[in-house]
Write a structure and sequence with these properties.
single chain, mainly alpha, 4 helices, elongated
Length: about 100
C-alpha cells in the first residue's frame, strides 16, 4: 500500500464524513492549537520566573546591562508572545476556512 492510499484510508477512518481538505484543515487547526498552548506555557514560565509581565520586563531590560541568561529569556519570551498572536490568527483563519 502506498503512502497516499494509507493516508486516505486513515483519514476516512479517523475523520468520517469529511473531505480530504476538511481533514487537512482539522489537522492544521490541531497543530496550531498545540503550538498556542506551548507558547502560552512559555509565557507563564517567564512571568513566574521574572515575576512580571513581558512589557514590564521589556522596560526593565532597556535600562540595565544584560547577562546572557536574561538576554536569552527576553528573546525566548518575545518569541512566545509573538507566537501566541500568530497562532490565534492562524486558528481563527482555519476555523473560518473550515466553516465554508
Amino acid at each position: 500500500m502506498n503512502l497516499t492510499s494509507t493516508l486516505e484510508t486513515s483519514a476516512r477512518r479517523l475523520f468520517p464524513n469529511q473531505s480530504p481538505e476538511q481533514v487537512f484543515a482539522e489537522l492544521l487547526l490541531e497543530r496550531a492549537q498545540k503550538n498556542l498552548i506551548r507558547y502560552q506555557t512559555a509565557v507563564r514560565h517567564f512571568e513566574t520566573k521574572h515575576k512580571q509581565d513581558f512589557e514590564s520586563f521589556r522596560k526593565f531590560i532597556l535600562s540595565t546591562e544584560l547577562s546572557f541568561e536574561i538576554e536569552q529569556d527576553y528573546f525566548d519570551w518575545e518569541l512566545a508572545v509573538t507566537g501566541i498572536a500568530d497562532m490565534k490568527d492562524e486558528i481563527e483563519q482555519l476555523k473560518r476556512s473550515n466553516r465554508q
